[in-house]
Amino acid sequence: MSRLEDMLRKTRAVLIGRGIALDDAEDLVHDAFIRVDGYEKTHIVLSRQAVMIKTAVNISIDRQRHERRTPFVSSTATMEIADAQPRPDEVALARARLRRASEGLAQLNEKTRRILLSRRLEDLSVAQIAEREGMTVAAVEKQIARATLNLMKWMDGW
Asked: pTM of the entire structure?
C-alpha cells in the first residue's frame, strides 16, 4: 500500500471513528485532500498526514455546524418537492367524467336542467327557485330529486 493510500485510509478511519458515515467520510477525505494539496503549494507542511486528518475533521465540524443552523436544508440530502398538480391520467379521467356528466345534463328537459343548476351551481334555495319558476316548493323539490336520481343512474360506473 502506498503512503498516500495509507494516509487516506487513516484519515477515513478517524472520520468513521467520529461517527461519520462511510460515504460522507469519503467525501470529506476528498475535500480535505484538495485543500491540503492547495495549502502545500504556499506553505511548508511537516506532517502531511496530520494536516490531512485535522483538515478533514475541521471540514466535518463545519458541516455539522451548518446542518445544526439549517436543519431543514441539508447540503448532503436531496430534497423532493411534491407536485401539487394532478397526474395526467387523473386529468384525463376527470375530463371524461365531466363529459359524461355534461351529456347526462343535456338529456334532462330544459326546465329540470335549469332548476337543478340553479340549486347546485347558483346555490339558490328551493323557495327562491320556486318563486323564480312560478312553481310550488314541493314541485321544485321533486324536480331536483328526479334530476339528481337520473344523473346518478347516468353516471353509474364512473
From this structure: 0.46
Q: What is the pLDDT of residues 36-53, one digit of tens each?
A: 989 899 999 899 999 999
4's grid cell: 498516500
Residue 16 has pLDDT above 60, yes or no: yes
Q: Is residue 89 part of a domain?
A: no
Domain residue limits at 25: 3-69
pLDDT in the model for residue 92: 92
Place 78 in a pLDDT band, splitting at 50, 70 and 90.
low
Per-residue DSSP letters for the chain?
--HHHHHHHHHHHHHHHTT--HHHHHHHHHHHHHHHHHHHTTS--S-HHHHHHHHHHHHHHHHHHHHHHSTTS-SSSPPP----SPPHHHHHHHHHHHHHHHHHHHHS-HHHHHHHHHHHTS---HHHHHHHHT--HHHHHHHHHHHHHHHHHHHTT-
The count of structural domains within the chain is 2
CATH assignment at residue 113: 1.10.10
